[in-house]
Design a protein that fits this description.
CATH superfamily of the largest domain: Aconitase, domain 4
Shape: globular
Order of helices and strands: EHHHEHEHEHEEEHHHH
Number of helices: 10
CATH topology of the largest domain: Aconitase, domain 4
């Protein structure tokens, strides 16, 4: 059974604030980092133009280049984060940098799906809650957060609040079990085989005799 990422049940650490709206995937992962299909070097590409100047030097005034946010596990984002073109590399780079959860009022649809398929919860929260979390994340003394995915809660020790959030049950299960879309499908492998057998028995004309004999007609 395939597993695309390490299962995620709980997560604790620093949260960084990125209040800019409409940060698109071209900004999250610029085109020059799309040359390969693996994840090597993609941490460098994440928000590259924001984190580095034209000479490749780190911008000291950018949050992810400042302590303690160089070790951020959470990213509190502005509205519509991850809009624009579809590129899974954007999520890969974010993960490679160490960010395992993003929280905001809205996300680009494909980006949100890519997050869930790569073990990164993209949690949509009310504006008031995002504003509260953003304020905490901007304070290096108050930016610690703790996620409990099974309980669907986010605790902020600095103000003693525990936020309960909603999420799609299927996405929650994928994250808790560390399974991608293929892995989740394969948890139903026997049901798929049983359906296939019934379907081919009722409709033998679907598969040629030669394919049946060599098992080429099998879906799994």
């Amino acid at each position: 059974m395939s597993s695309a990422f390490q299962a995620l049940s709980t997560l604790s650490g620093y949260a960084a604030a990125l209040p800019l709206p409409h940060v698109d995937t071209d900004q999250i992962m610029p085109k020059q980092f799309l040359k390969g299909i693996d994840r090597q070097g993609l941490a460098q590409g994440f928000l590259h133009a924001m984190r580095f100047d034209a000479a490749g030097q780190a911008r000291n005034d950018f949050v992810l280049n400042q302590a303690p946010w160089t070790e951020a596990k959470f990213l509190i984002t502005g509205a519509n984060f991850g809009c624009g073109s579809s590129r899974e590399h954007a999520v890969w780079g974010m993960r490679e940098l160490g960010i395992r959860c993003v929280l905001g009022t809205s996300f680009g649809g494909i980006f949100s799906d890519n997050c869930m398929r790569n073990g990164v919860p993209a949690l949509v929260l009310p504006v008031a809650e995002v504003d509260r979390l953003m304020a905490l994340a901007m304070d290096p003394q108050r930016c610690q957060m703790a996620l409990d995915l099974a309980a669907q809660t986010l605790h902020t020790p600095a103000d003693g609040q525990t936020l309960r959030f909603e999420m799609d049950p299927l996405h929650q299960e994928m994250l808790l079990r560390g399974l991608d879309a293929v892995g989740m499908s394969l948890t139903h492998a026997q049901d798929i085989r049983d359906f296939e057998a019934r379907h081919l028995t009722a409709n033998p004309w679907v598969v040629s005799p030669a394919a049946t004999e060599t098992n080429h007609g099998s879906l799994l």
